[in-house]
Amino acid sequence: MSTQRAAGSSEHFDVLIVGAGVSGIGAAYYLQKEHPSKSYAILEARGAAGGTWELFRYPGIRSDSDLHTFGYAFKPWESPKSIADADAILAYLRETAAENGIDRQIRLHHKVHRAAWSSRDACWSVDVERTDTGERIEVTCRWLFGAAGYYRYDEGYTPRFEGTHRFGGQIVHPQHWPKGLDYAGKRVIVIGSGATAVTIVPAMAGKAAHVTMLQRTPTYIMPLPSEDAIANLLRRLLPRKWAYALTRRKNIAVQRLFWRFCRRYPKLARRLIRYLNARQLPRGYPVDEHFNPPYEPWDQRLCMVPDADLFKAIGQGSASVVTDKIEAFTERGLKLESGRELEADIVVTATGLNLLPFGGIALAVDGVPVHLPGKVAFKGMMLDGVPNYAFAIGYTNSSWTLKVGLLCEHFCRLLAYMDAHGYTICCPERSEPAMPTRPLLDFGAGYVRRSLSELPLQGTQAPWLMSMDYYSDMKLLKEDSVEDSNLRFSSHDREEAAPTAKSGAEG
Prior knowledge:
Helix content: 25-40%
Region (Disordered): 486-507
Pfam families: Pyr_redox_3
GO molecular function, one term: monooxygenase activity
CATH architecture of the largest domain: 3-Layer(bba) Sandwich
Structural class: alpha/beta
Family: Belongs to the FAD-binding monooxygenase family.
InterPro entries: FAD-binding_MO, FAD/NAD-bd_sf
CATH superfamily of the largest domain: FAD/NAD(P)-binding domain
């Protein structure tokens, strides 16, 4: 595929990747490994690479997946800590980028606002803002790859609370953690019960006078060791790559087995999780009041607590859990619907995320705006009717990066297939326009439910299914051919469109 500079454009790339986090760096690695002659760049709106792990700075921030599966398949995770903090993960990402020369392709302070596809030219014209200078530039590319995740970086979600203006203390959202916030000896309330809350509470409990986790609804919480004993043993006995590969396979299997167990036997899973919680909590603790969700396991993502740190903080008396609803802020804290008042010096609103599909980029195809809620995802990586556009969204029931790796490998195979057949355009098309659909993220988390109307859809069967099963995706994305009756290939310099070849050639 030739790299020609479009008229009036400052730069042209074969592939333009949006987002320099775990997905963007992974996509760049596979692209330059499989297609070293193709030009690419990574555009990052913020002033540093690293995505989530560079953005969030609240106390205790860490992964909620083990790094042997959250890490890249091609780069072993070598720390003894399987559940790692943000600084270690950020160092790992940046080391990956530096070792492979990816860091030289990252353009910081480059925010993508719009992208317009031209079938005549078979390229995207991308409107980019230099956020450090305010300059607007246009970049063109043959393929646009969205690696910006699905949540909004500049704004977290905070529900409206009555009386916040009356509160005499400080209100903090984890997504905007103040540098140098002094909470030593202070009373802290953390509103929320998700992964962020269960991370912050034990991390602050060591210095604060007391930390209260105030939750409206309990969450399933699983204690697990921060170190993987088998992984560390294998690392001592085997070459590092072998040890990492075996550990990765083991952990993928364990994750999948536990998820399937929870979905197939929810009552038994609920009892098991309750038993594990009760073992870690003080005798007589009201487990069913604070750790008994009204939904089934994995209707929402389970929260993992390394080395049972949350339960230890509760047992030591430095943290506590209150299950109630907020009526209003007061001068001294929070008044609850039960009539109880909690006093606080600092209130942390760990109340969730705002979603921003595909980085908020406004897409248009041949002058027609792309209406995302009317689109259906193809193989979980493209949108019907949108040519030469791919995206990476990871698993919600397992490590994010497992899915991203498979998507990136499939994307590279797709490019190779197009090159081999002389195609410049690839576009999924629904063979059944009235096919049954469902939400793209079939997931009960509040931040997902609030944004369903803004997201694309998925079908009910492959290739339109947004699969959350690693082994199914291995077959679909890594083993099966890139050819599909729903995928249309063509070349902009030929008069007729070329339907998918049926020769059986593999991509």
